[in-house]
């Protein structure tokens, strides 16, 4: 069953890859992909995703505790971690929507200002 929740999961993956600068959760097959996801984010349960075990293609997996997002994305602030947590919610019906994401602190906090001497220098292309 496809819904917009899949797109929001994809947004989380894209954001993660921009932050890490490497592929995030890259698997070689469907089962390997799920294993990578569960190793990183923890294995979902019927408590975190009610009805999950009743899905048509449900397969039981080893229970992985997952890694706290702040350990995976060590340079991320609390507002960004909150966004990632919402995007990586397993249950698509409770996953952060685009409207909810845009209202999160990550998008309303102003970036820190840089003085001219500490701002990164870029070369202008002609």
Per CATH, the superfamily is Transferase(Phosphotransferase) domain 1
Overall geometry? globular
How big is the Rg? 18 Å
Strand fraction: under 5%
- Characterize the main sheet: none
Give me the secondary-structure category. mainly alpha
CATH architecture: Orthogonal Bundle
Count of separate DSSP helical elements = 6
Q: First CA to last CA: what distance? A: 49 Å
Unreliable spans: none
Name the helix and strand elements from N-terminus to C-terminus, one letter apiece: HHHHHH
- Number of beta-strand segments: 0
Helix content: 40-55%
* CATH fold group: Transferase(Phosphotransferase), domain 1
- For the record, what CATH class applies? Mainly Alpha
The number of domains is 1
Mean pLDDT figure: 89
Task: Fill in the keyword field for this structure.
serine/threonine-protein kinase; Transferase(Phosphotransferase), domain 1; ATP binding; mainly alpha; globular; 0% strand; Kinase-like_dom_sf; Prot_kinase_dom; signal; 126 residues
